[in-house]
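User: Good morning. I'm curious how TUI would be positioned relative to this chain. Could you predict the structure with it bound?
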Amino acid sequence: MGMNTRVTELLGIEVPIVQGAMARIANASLAGAVSEAGGLGIIACGGAPLAWIEEQVGMARSITSKPIGANVMLMDPNAGAVAELLAELRVDVITTGAGSPANYMQLWKDAGIKVVPVVASSALAARMERLGADAVVAEGTEAGGHIGELATMALIPAVCDAVSIPVIAAGGIANGRGIAAAFALGAEGVQIGTRFLTVDECTIADAYKDKVIKAKDSDTIVTGRGSGHPVRCLKNAFSRKARKLEDDLAANGDELEAMYVGSLVRAIDGDVDNGTMMAGQSAALVYERKAAAQVVAELMAEAQALGALDLGALAAANARRERARGASSAQ
Ligand code: TUI
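Assistant: Good morning! Here's the predicted structure, ligand included:
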């Protein structure tokens, strides 16, 4: 099952699959299972108390001796304290989302941590490379949660052409076909969130998992575009109401703000009508509940069966791209 790319080498993992950080969802149970299966599990620190983060990192380390990552949500008012705690805990990898990690990059690098910012444009990817990022996750708008504008199909090759560090593709990938497609676009790894929502080790309520499994391709909605914080989640009474209220933000701002308080946790606890069920468009491709290790094995088997992971061919294609990039920037 093993398959080495610059991403597996950099992160010290066996298969080029990173588990997406899902706020209030991705805990030690999920991250430990994905890492133990050979991918990189990520503990999501967004909105979490420091004591919880420390506890979860410890628990993940008791589940697996393989590398473990953590994610810092940069819009979190507590991001600075989380950044320092993770440096002290010396997690193996830090990914960041929803902003620029410029202020923490040196702290983490000095702690020997691999830094992998999540970006939604080639401009930010190039900035992250200049700041010393070890790799980037390029996340298309198909993803769940807080999203950018560009679709994965256009974003991944643009980011690959803009940087020399390895690119991990995210947004809309939930099976081996998606992995093969991402590699064809130049990525050397994938980040997958939504597919891991329904695995046995993911501790969200069964009702939330059932909604992901039932979702079709048109069953996600983006709220918050008007306020500058677009978030993709499953359609339900709550997200439809939020979208309606957004039509008159000036009049409904306070009501919206009150609605959102605790809405992630409500969904996670099973209130699928009154909570925010973050999920990506790839929810349409999630059909069942099984163990994380089984999902990882299936993803790799399917990607390899597609013949798309011919590493010799991919290395040659990437070298050609790199030469073309050098030639064009020398002009
Ligand atoms: O961060 C994410 N996805 C997230 S964070 C999150 S937590 C949350 N909780 C409640 C309400 C809202 C959010 C849920 N999902 N993905 C990574 C990502 N980062 N996608 C897009 C970006 C991004 C966008 C703009 C990164 C940087 C950026 O601009 C940075 C700059 O300073 O130029």
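The pocket of TUI is lined by residues 23, 46, 73, 97-100, 118-120, 124, 139, 145-148, 229, 231, 264, 278 (CB under 6 Å). The two ends are 42 Å apart (CA to CA).
Let me know if you'd like a different ligand tried.
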